Amino acid sequence: MADDSFIREVNEELRSDQAKAVWRRFGPLIIGCAVAIVLGTAANVAYTSWTSSKSSASGDKFLAALDLASEGKNDEALTALDDLEKTGYGSYPALAQLRAATVLLQKGDAKAAVEAFDKASQDNAIPAPLRDMARLRAAYILVDSGSYDDVAKRVETLSADSNPMRHSARETLALAAWKAGRNEDAAKLFKQNADDAVAPPNLRQRANTMLDLMRGAGTLSEG
Question: How far apart are CA 173 and CA 50, in angstroms?
């Protein structure tokens, strides 16, 4: 038993010495890793809090600008949106740029609105879907104030079968063609929407209405 006790004590000493050696060798590294994990976690929490705060502040400014526009205070809304475009966080500068173009249209300045939408459509800092939306909005305005070519230049590529905005693009092109007296072209585009089962119901309804109108006016042959 005395031998067993001695062996156990020696074994414990050896283990203790090994542990000390391991700690002397790897202790600083272990401490460094622990500190790095703590600092990384703290930094991530701080960054998340900061981004959340910035996004929330920009969101509040955007809503305030929308309220000004809805109250008819267009000039004040444009000032607020311009500030948000310059100082906003996340997607809000892009949204502010697009909303400012809409406010210009509300003021009755279609030319300035088209220019603003065109500027947004060419800004690579803006996500692609929003750039396409800007092209579409400019085209809708130009149905009334521009030529068919003006409209086509902006949305013809959006009318492709694979584009998610194809139905609105086709409607815009069709309206521009109809206005320009290109009735067959207009009918073809309206029919594409009317016959497309996945087109939004309101767009299909408008397409059918326009086709009926064209037939009633004698500008479209049957068949």
Answer: 45
